[in-house]
Sequence to fold (308 residues):
Amino acid sequence: MKILGIGNAIVDVICKIDNNFLSANGLTKSTMKLVEENEFNKLLQNLNIEKTISGGSVANSIVGLSQLGNKVGFIGKVNNDDLGRKYSEGLEKEKVQYHYNIKSEELPTGTCLILITPDSERTMCTFLGTAGKISEKDIDEKIVKQSEITFLEGYLWDKGDPQKAFNKAISNSSNSAMSLSDLFCVERHKSYFLDLVQNKLNITFANEQEISALIGVKNFEDVITFSKKIKKLVVITRGDKGAVAIKGDQVVECKARKNLKIKDLTGAGDLFAAGFLHGYVNKLSLKESLEKGTDLSSKIIQQVGARL
Fold:
């Protein structure tokens, strides 16, 4: 395989809302909040569902890579319930090899409520369910070793079993990549993420807000200085300022696309990572890889949902 993704196997439930819904429910726009099943169901009671789809950050990236013609696989934990079976079928339809043996679990398959406000920003409430219970037993080291790149998501990282699963995947991978995923994740696991970025990962994906918070700086020049110093590949999206790839002393920039009819920012980072990794694994230049990532992210935000 070109790339193996390991992440939260989450079914996305997409709903359009107004800003009052966020304030009424104590939600912060553009962030992700972990919720229990009761809170998730309570929120869902007052909403109209636009779309339901097999999701999860890295899974979205892996599907994007498959659509670009790459041989890819995914590991993510689901339950042997209706949503879990639909999740598996959804990946198989996209020609993604699903390297997980579905079995009955104590918790149901994970679900993410994606709330889209009129400004196209998305706010997420995630009930991880069994997805958050991934352990090292779920990671097949043979599959990891057969992949050119192992791509992980910050959303999946947590103390205990998920951390052990992460460590097993990284230690068996010749080339490991990770997305910092969300400011919420960075602030929750700052010291651990910093260790991963500095010492264990080969490639880090982040937006400007996430990487700045991780290293405690406000000036983007300081982000570049940090990235040069660690001598790894750091890929940063900057919204309307475009994207930057830093590898050693090499700093490559790509401008953002203009005049886009933005409908939904869900999946922008996921599809950017897919485009970039497609370029990287197929030996394109950093500039070409950034362009491919920008192209895919520009397309996805002009539609609803995180699948092209």
About this structure: The chain is about 40% helix and 20% strand.
